[in-house]
Amino acid sequence: MASLSIKKISSIYQPTLPGEWPAAAQHSDGYRFSNEPFLLADFVRPRHGDRVLDVGSGSGVVPILLATRFPGLKITGVEIQKSLLDIARQNVRENGLENLIHLVHADFTQALPALDNEPFDLILGNPPHRKLGTGRINPDPGKAMARHELTLNLPGLIESAHARLKSGGKLALVYPLSRLEEARKEMLRRKIYPSRLRLVCGRTGKPPYVFLIEGIKGAQVPSVAESTLSIYNEAGIQTEEMKDLYASFNHPGWTHRL
């Protein structure tokens, strides 16, 4: 059984800015989150009082980020892996956010009373990115489930999100750029109309590798292509925009190269 690494996130990263960020734990040798939760939490624009659902909450980073920036939200996180959910609950308790974040152990594609009593204003997800049949499946079951679409694929995610969004509600996702056209097609098939798109480059001047997309259920609006975000500049130094993004969560920064 994997051991837990219980640290402040600021001790996992190289500090570049002053200030404390909420404590978080994650498996020391299991699935570890990257910078995509920060990108996704920064991308969304919820309103005060919104009901928000995070799909595949993992160790709870996205709900904690959202509760940090938008304390007026009603946040639910759903996670299929019990081991990750236990860590997420620990992280929520550690940060005193039990009244703001409700975590559910469940398969998002199944009917769930805990999720289906009232529709959501915003559903967001940083789900498994890799299609079955592409790449080697990790022998670690937790990593495999978090990286490959073993239990939740893109069409199933969008179909289940459509069923749980209120009319005019928003869906926001982060995926590798190779899945962009598929994501657009599946959203339109479910009458979730893309409204915002942002591409992310690992380094300035390099092709984008990730996209962030937002769609609105039942409302056709002009789709806005936002400025491309670069994580590092040509010299391999973190860009000022990315530093500002981390700082907006009172977070000291990320040291891992992409």
Brief write-up:
The chain has 258 residues and is α/β, with parallel strands linked by helices.
Molecular structure report:
- With 258 residues, this protein is an alpha/beta fold.
- The chain has one domain (4-248): 3-Layer(aba) Sandwich (Rossmann fold), CATH 3.40.50.
- The protein is 29% helix and 28% strand.
- It is built from 9 helices and 11 strands.
- Strands 3, 4, 5, 6, 7, 8, 9, 10 and 11 form a 9-stranded mixed β-sheet that branches.
- It is globular.
- The model is unreliable at 1-21, 25-32 and 252-258 (pLDDT under 50).
Can you count the helices? 9
Radius of gyration: 17 Å
CATH topology annotation? Rossmann fold
Task: Note the overall shape.
Answer: globular
* Number of domain modules: 1
Biggest pleated-sheet summary: 9 strands, mixed
CATH superfamily: Vaccinia Virus protein VP39
